[in-house]
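Q: Okay, next protein. This is Tryptophan-rich sensory protein from Luteimonas salinisoli. I've checked the sequence twice, so it should be correct. Can you predict the 3D structure?
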Amino acid sequence: MRLLVLLFAITMPLVAWLSGRAAFGPDTATVSDRHPTLLVAAGYAFSIWGLIFLLDLLYAAWQATGVRRRDPLLGRVALPAAAGFALTAAWMPLFSQGLFWLCLVVIFGALACLAWSALQLARPATHAPAWLALSLHAGWLSLAAFLNLAQAIVAYRLLPDGAMLGWSLALFAAAAAVLLGLNQRMHGNTAYAAAALWGLGAVYVKQSQSGLDGSDAAAWAALAIGLLLGLQTAWLRWRERRRPVAVLPPPG
């Protein structure tokens, strides 16, 4: 299983490279531009994938070598981490083909796998490489999944695309619930929150410059969620630092 983590960690940037060269169809930016929404982020935001892929590779190599191969916690997260990496890789060609319903199953599946893994590593301690990589990946997917959902709604015309604000605000609320809920469970995970804040900031930038009806309200919604997430993270980290440390009695 440890080797599967490494294999799929290598597969993700390879598939991303092929996708960027239109090996599976139009690249993700082209497909995304065909279905503008009030949740889409500025293009620069997706550069975070480079950092995510690098950290995932470092984690995958680290967990497969040395004494880490016998670590029970790393063993417990190996299967969901491998699944999350495999689903992340699969999403890219599916999105290029415009298979939005399948993309939703895949991206929410990847989110479930990687969020569960990050929850197991909520207190990094001696597992910092795994905590950092999986938390950052899960944080980005926690927002990206809802961006993908908005594009599926527009692509299949499930809701009015001429009056998107109402249902878009509902998606913002759902994304906020996931982000704040998972961050609470992870005691204020700075890596998880940082990835989401990066994305929310890019949504604010994109929507504040957009000509779509309701884009100004969407920009402020993204900014408000970012502020809430930042404040929650700071408060949870402060509370963790004040938590009393248990002192074990001396032996005998």
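A: Here is a summary of the prediction. Residues 2-238 form one domain. The chain has nine helices and no strands.
Q: Noted. On to the next one.
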